[in-house]
Design a protein that fits this description.
The complex is a heterodimer. Chain A contains 27 helices and 26 strands. Chain A is elongated, with a radius of gyration of 32 Å. Helix content of chain A is 52%, strand content 18%. The chains are: A alpha+beta, B mainly alpha.
């Protein structure tokens, strides 16, 4: 994405534009703002100190606190402090920094569900430890009244603890039964209920076997799995919802009496709308008056601004960069292209949920299997002994010993270990099943601009300009907020050039910048305006007085790690495709540079999604890597999707994984990790099954004492967790 | 055996105390950044007087 330093810039995250408005609506005027900045590169105590010191040194910053776990810094600052300044200060101090949208974060920051789960887990652990302690006394030979007392105390601790901590399972099991289907929580709930019920009954009759410790241990291990699972999913958000924030709710309508602010819903085709520089175009329509340059990256992925003249068509969501324009409305609201893309994503998202994770597949086999075995054991023992109490005891023992705690931990433990590993390398996983899907990928589709390239143009050949030309060029470039000018100013400043003094600097929207230097007219801008032949590449042109025109060409730099990534994917035998909205020549030339042979150019957003769908229909599992609005539909249509941190918010929301740093290298690592993770998950299922195969015959035979149940349960859970840790 | 009558309540009370402490720390956000806190303790910024 192009970064504009102009304060009136169209923000990269549209929700930021809306944010201040929401504050006004909320009433009470806050005196300080809470800003969030992502710091993908920090890793040590020195980084924490460095970041906090750099931020504290800035005016208006009241407090800054780094969260190393989330690679993020929260800044309390005066309202007028701009996040961009903070990011620049951090970049100058040597830390990669990206602005985060606090409005979107607020929803996820206070993680109520996570805290509730953690609290339940703590209660379960407390209860388990105490009940186990009492159980050890029973196992080591407590008899008669002492044993009964131990059982009663165990019951007093375990029953309330089980009722409180198991709620997530009961709720989910109840919901599943209501919908007439089985999930993993049904056998869990039944096992807990049976274990507590028969144990209480046995205790009343001063029986020998009470499974209170097993019931609470079951809760503990499963809650641990749930909590891990929750942690890895906490970042998942709906893409369709966030797209809504991109739509501009109000527009300036031109009426007979002047302009008035109206709701977009009230606009009709044929109405005239005024769009000021820095604003987003609210409707689809035709430009009627004024000329400007548009940032169309949101629609096409092409980051270089496009000139727009009267008669050109414009689309909702595009940013108006340089001049005020009047647009005749053709479509507004739900009829715009932007809204249609949002709908595409919603449809594709609904379709994607069809993926069945390994855990779900296991649960489908497991739940009925366990119930059948337990029921058969109960019936068999009842027929053999004609004693209902014995039969129920055996059934409870079977349900406890086949307890799915190892199964419940198998997947979350692996995904958490894998996510933690990838997060340290610079990749954030948002979806719980993304790793499993990534492991099966055989085709990788890349977007070009902003994904394989940095998306920001770099000026070439600045050294070849004369001393005077450099000074003039810098002075003119500083007079514009145009991305090319900004990039050139940066390049010249790095060369140590000082700007010359210019008079009457004026920006002509859509053309360039003009000024007076030593009595001569100097111009920097479009070829036609300066009086030169346009080059085939992206370029800007400098003319001093009557001198020869200097062309300054721009190039979009290849992103770090792109070539290595493509080579690595090919080495793994994956099919690599470049899919871009850009023109054929530029795409082919670029593909040759990074080593991609399959190229599809000039693809519209719908076409991109269709290409992905066609690939999937032909039996391939597709990974899509993209960053723009034009990629969002394709990102959602693919089996798995990854977007860089610099991507549009909507694209990041549509992806399963987000690269937190600038480099593409972690993708290769993610492929390897996902394959390893899938292998570990399958190993874990095998381990859990082997434990069950050994223990179930014991339980059915009536030989499963509470001690054996506790041992089998704990050791299978521990083995599974340790196996998962091998991924770190 | 009478000592059990004392020890069991004591063990439960101590456990409950730990549970309450955990609940309080959870509310206070002590577990929000475990990685950062592990590094923060090594800094000498607060060695002389806390801010």
């Amino acid at each position: 994405m192009t970064a504009l330093a102009d304060p009136a810039r169209p923000s990269a995250c549209p929700a930021c534009d809306v944010g201040p408005l929401a504050e006004q609506v909320a009433g009470a005027a806050p005196t300080q703002a809470r800003l969030m900045i992502a710091l993908p590169g920090i890793h040590c105590a020195g980084c924490i100190s460095g970041v906090e010191r750099a931020l504290h040194a800035l005016p208006g910053v009241r407090d800054a606190r780094v969260n190393l776990t989330l690679r993020r810094v929260a800044v309390e600052a005066d309202l007028d402090v701009d996040t961009n300044t903070l990011c620049h200060a951090l970049s100058d101090a040597g830390y990669e920094a990206h602005e985060l949208d606090p409005g979107v974060l607020a929803a996820t920051e206070i993680d109520a569900t996570g805290r509730a789960l953690l609290m339940r887990l703590a209660v379960a652990v407390f209860a388990m430890m105490n009940v186990m302690l009492l159980s050890v006394a029973v196992w080591s030979g407590a008899e008669g009244v002492t044993r009964d007392m131990m059982h009663w105390i165990s019951a007093a601790i375990a029953i309330p603890a089980v009722i409180f901590t198991g709620q997530p399972f009961y709720v989910s099991a109840f919901a599943a039964l209501k919908a007439r289907r089985l999930n993993m929580d049904v056998p869990i709930t039944l096992a807990i209920a049976l274990a507590v019920g028969t144990s209480l009954y046995e205790t009343m009759l001063s029986g020998e076997h009470a499974y209170f410790d097993a019931a609470i241990a079951l809760c503990t291990f499963l809650l641990a799995g749930r909590y891990l699972d929750h942690r890895t999913r906490a970042n998942a958000r709906s893409a369709a919802q966030e797209l809504a924030a991109l739509e501009v709710p109000r527009a300036l309508q031109i009426t007979g009496q002047g302009t008035q602010s109206v709701s977009i819903a009230d606009l009709r085709p044929g109405d005239l709308v005024r769009v000021l520089p820095g604003g987003r175009i609210p409707v689809d329509g035709v430009l009627r008056d004024g000329s400007t340059e548009l940032d169309r990256s949101i629609m096409t992925g092409e980051t270089l601004p496009a000139a727009a003249m009267p008669g050109d068509s414009v689309h909702a969501g595009e940013a108006n960069l340089t001049g005020a324009i009047t647009v005749e409305v053709q479509a507004a609201g739900r009829d715009t292209e932007l809204a249609r893309i949002a709908d595409l994503i919603a449809v594709a998202e609904a379709g994607r949920n069809n993926y069945t994770s390994l855990a779900d597949a296991a649960a489908k086999l497991y739940a009925p299997g366990v119930h059948i075995i337990a029921a058969l054991a109960a019936v068999g023992w009842f027929l053999a002994t004609m004693d209902l109490r014995v039969a129920l005891n055996i059934a409870a023992a079977v349900l406890i010993i086949t307890c799915p705690c190892a199964l419940g931990l198998a997947v979350p433990a692996v995904t958490t270990a894998a996510s933690a590993r990838l997060f340290r390398k610079g990749l954030l996983i948002k979806s719980g099943t993304a790793l499993e899907r990534l492991a099966q990928v055989d085709t990788v589709v890349f977007d070009k601009t902003g994904t394989l390239t940095d998306g920001a143009p770099t000026a070439l050949g600045l050294q070849e300009l004369s001393e005077a030309e450099r000074g003039v060029a810098l002075a003119l470039a500083q007079g514009s907020a145009h991305p090319l000018a900004l990039s050139m100013a940066r390049g010249l400043a790095e060369l140590g050039v000082h700007p010359v003094a210019l008079d009457a600097v004026k920006e002509h929207p859509g053309f360039g910048v003009e000024g007076q230097w030593r009595g001569q007219t100097v111009r920097l801008g479009r070829a036609g305006w300066v009086g030169a032949e346009a080059l085939a590449t992206t370029a800007t042109y400098l003319k001093i007085g009557d001198g020869a025109v200097q062309a300054i060409a721009f190039d979009d730099a290849i992103r770090t790690g792109a070539e290595a990534l493509v080579a690595g994917l090919k080495a793994q035998g994956k099919r690599v495709i470049l899919l871009s909205g850009d023109v054929e020549a530029a795409v082919s030339a670029f593909a040759a540079r990074v080593g991609i042979t399959e190229v599809m150019a000039e693809a519209r957003p719908e076409a991109k999604a269709e290409v992905i769908m066609a690939l999937r229909d032909s039996g391939e599992t597709v990974l899509m890597v993209g960053d723009g609005m034009n990629d969002t539909a394709a990102l959602t249509a693919a089996d798995v999707s990854i977007s860089p941190a610099s991507a549009l918010e909507a694209a990041r929301a549509a992806s399963d994984m987000v690269l937190t740093g600038g480099s593409l290298a972690p993708i290769l690592d993610a492929m390897a990790t996902s394959v390893a993770a899938r292998k570990r998950i399958k190993e874990n299922f095998t381990i859990a099954s082997v434990y069950n195969l050994l223990a179930v015959p014991l339980a059915v035979a009536g030989l499963c004492s509470p001690l054996i149940a506790a041992l089998a349960m704990s050791s299978s859970s521990l083995t599974v967790s340790l196996n998962a840790l091998r991924l770190r | 055996m009478e000592v059990l009558g004392l020890l069991i309540p004591v063990s439960l009370a101590l456990g409950a105390l730990g549970l309450v402490a955990f609940w309080w720390l959870l509310k206070k956000g002590q577990f929000d950044d475990p990685e950062g806190d592990a590094h923060r303790i090594l800094r000498d910024d607060y060695d002389d007087k806390p801010k």
